[in-house]
Structures are given as C-alpha cells and as structure tokens.
UniProtKB/TrEMBL annotation:
InterPro entries the UniProt entry points to: NTF2-like_dom_sf, SnoaL-like
Occurrences of domain SnoaL-like (ranges): 21-106
Name of this protein: SnoaL-like domain-containing protein
Signal peptide stretch: none
Domain of life: Bacteria
Length: 114
C-alpha cells in the first residue's frame, strides 16, 4: 500500500471512528488548520472537521468509507471512495481531492451526489 493510499485509508476511518478517538485519529492524517468542503458544507480546522464527521456518523450509523483508488503527485491527490452501509453494501460513491502539507492532508474537497 502506498503512503497516499494509507493516508486516505486512515482518513476514511476517521469518519466512523469512536467519538472519543476521532480527533486524535484525525490529527495523524490532517494538519491543524485543515480546510474541508463538500456540496453541503465548508469547515476549517481539525475541531470543526471532527464535529462534522460526528454529525455524519449520527446521520448514517454503522456506515464507513472504503478507499478504492488513490492517484497522487506533487503534494496533491485524488481518492475514489465508496460509502458502505451497515451490512457492507455500497450506499454511494464519490471522489475527494486534497493538497498535502507535511505528509498530511491540508485542503480536502469531496464530490458526491448531493
């Protein structure tokens, strides 16, 4: 597994992480002043992103993300992912892009059916 694949896989796990461990896990994959946006929101900083992830986990209990493919070059990456339901069934797919800084995600944009 490439470093970028591992980074995205660990980031994806943050979305379904135990609430008490989410922020610490997020710190290992994203910079403190991370920017995040998707069709429904725009947040800045690890604390706000962790809170947004908690809202997702509450709205989609038992769901998780699987990273299907990562393309990476020049401190930028694109990840194709699948959101999996409680039984592991595909719920939706999308792509996310990111700028990297210091080996972590710094500016993340998610694209999915809104």
């Amino acid at each position: 597994m490439s470093d970028s694949q591992r980074l995205w896989t660990n980031y994806a796990a943050c979305w379904s992480a135990d609430p008490g461990e989410r922020l610490a896990a997020l710190r290992t994959v994203a910079v403190e002043d991370v920017a995040y946006r998707d069709p429904g929101t725009e947040v800045g900083g690890l604390t706000e992103l962790a809170a947004y992830m908690a809202g997702f986990a509450g709205a989609f209990p038992g769901h998780r993300f699987r990273i299907d493919e990562v393309l990476h070059h020049h401190d930028r990456s694109l990840a194709r992912w699948t959101q999996l339901g409680e039984q592991g069934e595909p719920a939706t797919t999308g792509v996310s892009t990111a700028l990297h800084r210091d080996g972590r995600l710094a500016d993340i944009t998610g694209f999915f059916p809104a």
